[in-house]
Amino acid sequence: QPQRAVTPGQALVLYEDRYCLGGATIDRSR
Asked: How far apart, in whole angstroms, are the C-alpha atoms of residue 4 and residue 9?
């Protein structure tokens, strides 16, 4: 679900079923 309170330092991880497609650490928000 979409998130509204994204803050720097949080992790972003993309999954498809049980497979991790990639990830990143949030640097800044707009």
From this structure: 15
Q: Distance between CA atoms of 30 and 21, rounded to whole angstroms?
A: 24
Contact 29, 8 (CB under 8 A): yes
pLDDT at residue 28, as a whole number: 83
Could you tell me the residue ranges of all domains in the chain?
1-30
CA distance 25 to 17: 21
pTM of the model: 0.57
The beta strand positions in 1-30, using DSSP E, are 11-16, 19-25
Q: Which residue has the tokens 């991880």?
A: 13
